[in-house]
Specification:
Layout lengths: L1 E5 L3 H13 L4 E5 L11 E4 L1 H10 L1 H9 L1 E5 L1 E5 L2 E4 L3 E6 H14 L3 E3 L15 E4 L6 H5 L6 E15 L6 E8 L2 E9 L5 E7 L1 H6 L7 H11 L1 H4 L4 E2 L10 E8 L3 E2 L2 E3 L14 H18 L4 H31 L1 H5 L4 H10 L7 H8 L3 H22 L35
Parallel strand pairs: 1-2, 1-9, 2-8, 5-11, 9-17
Antiparallel strand pairs: 3-7, 4-7, 5-6, 10-13, 10-14, 10-15, 11-12, 12-13, 16-17
Helix pairs in contact: 1-4, 1-9, 2-3, 2-9, 3-4, 9-10
Amino acid sequence: MKIVCVGAGPAGLYFAIAAKRQDPGREITVLERDARGATYGWGVVYWDDMLDMLYVTDPVSARAVRRASALWKDQKIHVRGEVAHLGGYGYGCQRSAFLEALTRRAVQLGVTVRYEHPVEELAELDGADLVVASDGAGSRIRQLHGDAFGTRITTGNNPYIWLGTDKVFDSFVFAFEKTPGGWIWFHAYPSSPAVSTCIVECSEATWRSLGMDRLDEEDRLGLLAEIFQRPLEGRRLISQARGEPARWLRFKQVTNESLCHGNTVLLGDAGHTTHFTIGSGTRLAMIDAVELARSLADYPEDVAAALADFDDRAGPNVRHVQSTARGSMSWYEHADEYLDGRSALDAAYAMASRGDSPNTSRYRKFRRQQRPAVRRVRAVVETVNRILLAARRGQIPFVPGCHPGPPPGRPPAGVDAPDEPRREASRV
């Protein structure tokens, strides 16, 4: 079988790895328009559920990804200098390091990866038995098929900008600051030993009031660093990740009625985007890759049947996660209303629960979780849980009775179709 993946992002590269491991005889080529190492954005964030899936599908690349990742513990919400805690832990990885680990493994398995190779016409893909469009939210392959996928793109209201900072956080941090023009906030997490990812967001009105539509790069970064001086502890913000200054963006939500048309399938952001506030984009892309490889394994001689199977199983999970993401995006687009007039603790609870009433048992539980003794106990429980999960994956082979889990080819139960998508900030 001849397979061409257009786009060397997480979805395309990981599908190539999973499909090549299943059948080394497959001829798989990945075409990427950018140069090797050139990537947009800073870091990716993920949790143990995705790490479980990576270890089951391909332990070699999983170990490489984990080595390149930073562990963060606790989720802290800063509101006007006061701090609330949500607990939890996860992992952050520099996007360039994440993709390099996948590229190295794909090449090692015999996948051909060609950089600086844009695909502008479908005729260039003639001869492929399967075309995987993994070329991002603005997918050229999807566009070349016209309306065949039933694509719908909607644009969010809030401007946001994806930055880095040399303040290396040890937790996942949300910081909300009130300015004369309104509230502005960031989401930040460690993504390398020297850099954290920092996504700044605010309403359109605040953005214009602060002059962000007029300031040059240096003045913009200076103003943002001044606004967030407390959580950044005076450290600088970094704009240029690939030789170009970061740009203010507005989130584009991509939905498709079907992920398949003919012998072409959409993976990752080409098929669906989820707002960055729930931290599921990379995870969904990797799940897509594993699920498509599974469908091909179930229908090895019938590409059409494999794609129909993938579409049937992937669609419900994607729609569920996108619905959750829309709700999260909406909360942030109205954040000023939720934050104004509230104490720091209540404002933190409003963010963590996405607007839940404070007159509930969940709110009382949230307040109890702020006690230092409760947080210490919770941290110990989470550390033990993390060690046990690592042992189950085979990361700690000296623990008696532990093994890496199910054999490669099938994700463990619950990984591919979770009941609830993982949030960057867990609901309390």
